[in-house]
Amino acid sequence: MKKQKNENHGRFIAMPFLSIAFFVLILLYPATTYAGDKADFSGEWTLNEDKSEMGEGRFRPSATLKITQAENSLVIDRTRIGRDGEQRKIKDEYTLDGEAKLTETERGSTKSTTSWSEDGKTLTINSHRKMTREGQTFEITSVETWELSDDGSALTIKSSISSTRGERSIVLVYNK
């Protein structure tokens, strides 16, 4: 009888501890989990040319991407190597709520919208650019589909681009 009393006493002491531990785990659980487990593309990425499919032509993809993703924004700092060998930096910003974002530059404007797949693993960016160069106006429409590998070490961006120069599809693979 005495032994049973001691076992019950240990259970009563453990119960509050387990309750507190459970509560702390809930508080520490990432808020993004409640938002539908959306992929997080944040990090520094380097182009893997061997796995990418860039096709023919003068297309020069970004050699590196530095991506910062918050609840409702995606900021991409791209570093591209120009034809002359110099580095060019471009910053793109998107909202992740599906609202259109208009970006104005000295060369033109870009209107972009984003949408998530139902499972939150794939992000699609639709962009429409109007650019002016040497007195001529060009329009470029693109659709980019972003997806992470299962282990999060590779980012694949599939792009379909349409312009007055024709249609182009590319697949860029970046490693973390």
Polypeptide structure, described:
The chain is α+β, with helices and mostly antiparallel strands and 176 residues long. Helices cover 18% and strands 51% of the residues. It has 2 domains: 2-33; 36-175, Beta Barrel (Lipocalin), CATH 2.40.128. It has a 10-stranded antiparallel β-sheet, with no helix packed on it. Strand 9 and strand 10 (166-175) form a beta hairpin. The longest helix is centred in the first third of the chain and has 27 residues, at 2-28. The radius of gyration is 24 Å and the shape is globular. The N and C termini lie far apart (62 Å).
TL;DR?
With about 180 residues, the protein is of the alpha+beta class.
Poorly predicted residue ranges:
14-35
The radius of gyration is 24 Å
The CATH superfamily name of the largest domain is: Calycin beta-barrel core domain
Placed side by side, the strands forming the largest sheet appear as 4-3-2-1-10-9-8-7-6-5
Determine and state the CATH class of the largest domain.
Mainly Beta
